[in-house]
């Protein structure tokens, strides 16, 4: 599939990238190669292959949720440079 420089510039604009003409030319060739590889993968017969199949057996290691004791609030607040009403005080970052 032929990818034009205009299409590369359009994708670059969507990605907020500034490209030179030579960069766009190179990316055009690279994108053609990538799309060509994807097209080649589409030629494979995937009939009967489970979409989430893995090369090795995979299982999730879930555990039961358990309520466990946590640290005391006073102990944690001792490490705060600034605290107020049992909470950390941090500098404001949004105005």
Order of helices and strands: HHHEE
- Given helix and strand content, the structural type is mainly alpha
Mean pLDDT: 89
Enumerate the strands of the largest sheet in spatial order, edge to edge or round the barrel.
1-2
Low-confidence stretches: none
Give the end-to-end Cα distance, rounded to a whole number of Å. Answer: 49 Å
Number of strands: 2
Number of helices: 3
Shape: flat
Indicate the CATH class of the domain at 5-42: Mainly Alpha
The CATH homology group name of the domain at 5-42: Glu-tRNAGln amidotransferase C subunit, N-terminal domain
Strand portion: under 5%
- Which fold does the CATH topology of the domain at 5-42 refer to? Histone, subunit A
Computed over alpha carbons, the radius of gyration is 27 Å
Which percent bin holds the helix content?
A: 25-40%
Identify the CATH architecture of the domain at 5-42: Orthogonal Bundle
What characterizes the major β-sheet? 2 strands, antiparallel
Question: What's the helix and strand layout?
Answer:
Blueprint: H1 5-14, H2 21-42, H3 73-77, E1 83-84, E2 87-88
Antiparallel strand pairs: 1-2
Give a structural overview.
This protein has 95 residues and is mainly alpha-helical. The protein has a domain at 5-42: Glu-tRNAGln amidotransferase C subunit, N-terminal domain (Histone, subunit A), CATH 1.10.20.60. It contains three helices and two strands, in the order H-H-H-E-E. A two-stranded antiparallel sheet has the order 1-2. A hairpin with a 2-residue loop joins strand 1 and strand 2 (87-88). It is flat and about 65 Å long. The two termini are 49 Å apart. The relative contact order is 0.08. The mean pLDDT is 89.
């Amino acid at each position: 599939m032929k990818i034009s420089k205009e299409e590369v510039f359009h994708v670059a604009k969507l990605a907020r990238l500034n490209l030179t003409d030579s960069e766009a030319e190179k990316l055009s060739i690279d994108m053609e190669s990538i799309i060509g590889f994807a097209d080649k993968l589409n030629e494979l017969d995937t009939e009967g292959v489970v979409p989430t199949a893995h090369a090795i057996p995979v299982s999730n290691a879930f555990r039961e949720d358990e309520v466990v004791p946590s640290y005391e609030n006073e102990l944690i607040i001792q490490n705060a440079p600034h605290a107020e009403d049992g909470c950390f005080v941090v500098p404001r970052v949004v105005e």
